[in-house]
Amino acid sequence: MNHSCYPKLGNEKQIYYYKCAYSRCNYVAAREKKSHELITNILGIDATLSFDSLPLLVKKVESEIPESLYKEKYVCLSGAVNYNKENSSFIAGEILKKYKNHKLVYLVGSPSGMNNEEPDVIESLKKFMPELIIHDAKSFTEWLSVIKNSVVLISGRYHYSIAAMCFGTPTICFSSNTPKLDEINKMFNLPGCVRTHDEFTKALNEIDNLTWQPLSKEMSDLAEYNYNFL
């Protein structure tokens, strides 16, 4: 099992459920240090520190990723599992101030189609960003290209953020329903996820002063441990 593990520590039944599930696995690979700590120390299950497998896929298709699909510079946006539409006015306003002469691209695209909550998030942003482009990527490499060639990714989606980290694309992460994005950021000394208006503004103001390096090799090396059971 390759997993991010965040049970409610005060819930004994949930801890028991997790222990039972993990104990039936022949091999457990934890995606971040915090998950590894919880699996080994709280659940008492042997686990290997690894990573999500996405960087291995990126590495495999890197030569096939298209050049930028847009002539102009652009900001790449996506929502989050727990995205609050009431924040759309503020988020849009701050982005429009910072990136006045950029296209705004909302990226969707997965084998299963658009996430259920996506249309509502898009509609809430379009009220304040009427020029927002909805880019429905039709292939994995097209999806990667939109992230790789953007000026910045602003997203609360786990795999979007990991893809950006592979390429060194500057990223602002919205907090998600588990701490896994925060923990990945800690592992690679990247800025933490934003949870408030002030944190979002601060992240926008500081993003150009940070050094963003491609992390594909570091993440791929960790991800290889997913397959140590083979």
Automatic annotation (TrEMBL):
UniProt KW Disulfide bond keyword: no
One family name in Pfam for this protein: PS_pyruv_trans
Domain spans labelled Polysaccharide pyruvyl transferase: 12-176
Keywords from the UniProt entry: Transferase
One of the record's GO molecular function terms: transferase activity
Cross-referenced PANTHER family: COLANIC ACID BIOSYNTHESIS PROTEIN WCAK (PTHR36836)
Protein name (record): Polysaccharide pyruvyl transferase family protein
